[in-house]
Amino acid sequence: MAQAKIKKKAEPAAGSEGTTAEERQVLLRSMLLQRRFEERCAEAYALGRIGGFCHLYIGQEAVGAGAMAALRADDYIITTYRDHGQALARGLSPRAIMAELFGRSDGCARGKGGSMHLFDRSLNFLGGHGIVGGHVPLGAGVGFAIKYRGGDQVCLCFMGESVVNTGAFHEALNMASLWKLPVVFLIENNRYGMGTALERASSIHDIYLRAASYDMPRAYVDGQDVLAVRSATLEAVRRARTESTPTLLEVRTYRFMGHSMSDAVSGTYRTKAELEEHMKRDPIMVLRIQMQEAGEIDDAGMAKLDEDVKAIVQDAWDFAEASPEPPLESLHEDVLVETST
Ligand SMILES: Cc1ncc(C[n+]2csc(CCOP(=O)(O)OP(=O)(O)O)c2C)c(N)n1
User: Fold this and answer.
1) Which structural domain, as residue segments, surrounds residue 243?
2) How confident is the model at residue 4 (pLDDT cuts 50, 70, 90)?
3) What is the pLDDT, as a whole number, of residue 339?
4) CATH code: domain of residue 224
5) Residue 191 and residue 194: Cα distance in Å, rounded?
6) Angle of helix 61-68 relative to helix 226-243, nearest 10 degrees?
7) Considering only Cβ atoms within 10 Å of each terminal Cβ, which end of the chain, N or C, has fewer?
8) Is residue 320 part of a domain?
9) How far apart are the C-alpha atoms of 311 and 127, rounded to whole Å?
10) What is the count of structural domains for the chain?
């Protein structure tokens, strides 16, 4: 029985199937906004406007854009520290994100969370978590809460592939499967945990097979093809919503930058040639070519879109710079919730 659930092949690359031209425009715009936003973050980091840790999403934009497109407005999202692109794709305001990164009081976590802790309760975007694997049981807990309350929402829980070697991951997957929780565990397999290749750290290289231990439906998908990501996530979300069954979805992607802003872009753990090879499948280019071939966008249209998103990012930067730092007296506010009253 369990064997029948194993999908050894990726979900069929969707091509343009299942999306409208308008939806493809939205996905292209979302990915381009993420890219331009992250480029300016790199600049702001170099200028000292952003401090602390800062992990960029460049190269992985199709994952955030495609997966978010499969959700309803009342679904929940929980994620790791590599959260800027997903937050933008969910609809958090670029101004509030940039202000958060600048440590300003108009930030989405009032300037106290920073890059790794983006949060917006109104959009059910539940962070931004810094401990590798630490948020996965929280994702299962959100699924439990949905089920307990009798809702039909879904929790989408993003994580990197290194998470699969933590105990928290296994405990959470076991419970999610046992209790049939409406959670989609989405692994962004960008092949490296900091400087450690997946093959050096994991006994199983087809990450999605890990779900077999918990008799959980599983699939993998090309993470550079936003339409394929959307389609695979839609199937997993449908299973969670209508059958209250979790899925482990491995999305195969690649990060074009260093692990964080304090690391070199290629480093000693991967070759420049490998990086360049992967950059040939830039997710923005992949969709742009598909749309160009379908006559849905031309060079002028692309240039206009780029101008528009650059203006949004510049506005976010200006807003962040003008926002005040949180006052010293507010240091202990919003740190702990009073639960005893
Ligand atoms: C429990 C724990 N151990 C170590 C770290 C340090 N650390 C931060 S990111 C990272 C690698 C995580 O890689 P992966 O899960 O593949 O995600 P990616 O950074 O590639 O998105 C490590 C080891 C941490 N944050 N938490």
Assistant:
1) 19-192+202-315
2) very low
3) 79
4) 3.40.50.970
5) 9
6) 40
7) C
8) no
9) 26
10) 1
CA distances from residue 286 to 18, 24, 59, 234 in whole angstroms, order as listed = 17, 12, 11, 20
Q: Please give the distance, rounded to the nearest whole angstrom, from the Cα atom of residue 139 to the centre of ligand 1.
A: 17
Please give the mean pLDDT across all residues of the chain. 94
* CB half-sphere exposure, 289, CA atoms < 13 A: 11
What the block records as the tokens of 320 is 């962040």
- Residues 258, 234: Cα–Cα separation, whole Å: 30
Alpha carbon distance 237, 232 (integer Å): 9
- Domain presence at residue 329: no
Angle of helix 299-322 relative to helix 21-46, nearest 10 degrees? 40
pLDDT one-digit tens code per residue, 301-332: 999 999 999 999 999 999 999 999 999 999 88
Give me the numbers of helices (H) and strands (E) for the chain, helices first please: 12, 7
Q: What is the pLDDT of residue 325?
A: 97
Rounded Cα distance, 297 and 283, in Å: 16
- The secondary structure element, H or E, covering residue 2 is helix 2-5
User: Is the Cβ atom of 190 under 6 angstroms away from ligand 1?
Assistant: yes
Ligand 1 nearest atom to the CA of residue 159, by list position: 15
CA of 73 to the centre of ligand 1 (A): 29
Q: What is the DSSP letter of 123?
A: G
Does residue 6 fall inside a structural domain?
no
- Measured in whole angstroms, the distance separating CA 76 from the mean position of its chain's CA atoms is 13
3-state secondary structure of 134: coil
Measured distance CA(65)–CA(212) in Å, rounded? 27
- Residue 235 Cβ contacting ligand 1 at under 6 Å: no
Is 43 a domain residue? yes
The span from the CA of 175 to the CA of 302, in Å, is 46
Determine whether the shortest distance from the Cβ of 278 to ligand 1 is under 6 A: no
Q: Tell me, what's the pLDDT at 265?
A: 87
60 CB near ligand 1 (under 6 Å): no
